[in-house]
Write a structure and sequence with these properties.
The chain is an alpha/beta fold and about 280 residues long. Helices cover about 35% and strands about 30% of the residues. The chain is globular, with a radius of gyration of 21 Å. The structure holds adenosine-5'-triphosphate.
């Protein structure tokens, strides 16, 4: 089976300024793949390229087995897209937004009506079908965007920061939807700033910084690569982080120190690895 998404040596520049730099990775069907990175890392640009909204300056991209540049119409049939900026139309009702998208994708009736009903029910918006979108909460709008993106039965769903700005409960609800869609067979690529989102949802993680992919793997692969044990050491006002292969090694290190004050050992997490790699915290 071909990869769901494949990028090989992809570059993107705007006015000769490089924003994506030699990006290569693949996503297999059925994965939830997370792109994590600070502001300006190039995550949205990557999603925009993969969803045919902007062209790579250089490199090879295939989505759903089709060449992105030569077969973009086919690519569009196989992908669902929820971007930060692509908002739903506030002056239309929930149902009208779905209708519009269904018509744009040439879904004939009665399937169109049936699928709109089915997906609105799935995202728990059936009882708001006649509400104007401007009267919905942020979480409801995001659920509508997801329902709309699913209407033409895509195989791959792209979500650009799907839970940004949502309260913790709404975020959890969206996570359940994402996991459930994946269980039904959907391949998902999402970008996020939230470590816990990646830890909770993603099978594999790509960490981007400055337009480059600086690390790639499952959480446990990343942890064993950088160290599963960590010693936090207070040096005046700040903390130093020292990685060790295991938590036991981290504890042994502390026990060997003549002065153990201001030191503690714990298991490493994604945030520790991210800070180690980029020198920055995200939130
Ligand atoms: N249309 C554009 N024209 C010029 N520069 C752009 C354009 N789109 C993005 N950039 C620049 O490309 C870089 C990467 O932006 P991008 O939005 O891909 O990052 P990001 O990782 O998604 O960050 P964020 O989390 O803030 O959305 C930034 O420096 C941004 O200013």
């Amino acid at each position: 089976m071909s990869a769901a998404v494949s990028l090989q040596n992809v570059y993107k520049s705007y006015n000769n300024i490089s924003v994506v730099n030699d990006l290569s990775f693949t996503i297999q069907p059925g994965e939830i793949f997370g792109l994590l990175g600070p502001n300006g890392a190039g995550k949205s640009t990557t999603i925009r390229m993969l969803t045919t909204l902007t062209k790579p300056t250089q490199g090879q991209v295939e989505v759903a087995g089709f060449d992105l540049l030569r077969q973009s119409i086919l690519v569009k049939q196989y992908i669902g897209v929820v971007l930060q900026q692509t908002s739903v139309d506030n002056d239309l009702s929930v149902w009208e937004n779905m209708e519009l998208h269904g018509r744009l994708h040439h879904i004939p009736n009665p399937q169109r009506q049936q699928r709109i009903g089915q997906w609105l029910k799935y995202v728990e918006l059936a009882d708001r079908r006649d509400s104007l979108v401007k009267t919905l909460s942020g979480g409801m709008k995001r659920r509508l965007q997801i329902a709309r993106a699913l209407l033409h039965q895509p195989q791959i769903l792209f979500l650009d920061e799907p839970t940004v700005g949502l309260d913790p409960q709404t975020r959890r609800r969206l996570w359940e939807i994402i996991l459930d869609l994946n269980k039904q067979g959907m391949t998902i690529l999402l970008t996020t700033h939230y470590m816990e989102e990646v830890e909770y949802l993603c099978n594999r993680i790509g960490i981007m910084d400055g337009g480059k992919l600086i690390s790639l793997g499952t959480l446990s692969q990343l942890r064993s690569q950088y160290g599963e044990g960590l010693v936090m050491k207070q040096v005046e006002e700040r903390w130093e982080y020292l990685f060790f292969p295991t938590l036991e090694d981290a504890n042994t290190f502390i026990n060997q120190q003549p002065n153990k004050t201001g030191m503690m050992a714990r298991s490493s997490n994604l945030e520790d690895i991210f800070v180690e790699l980029t020198g920055r915290r995200l939130d």
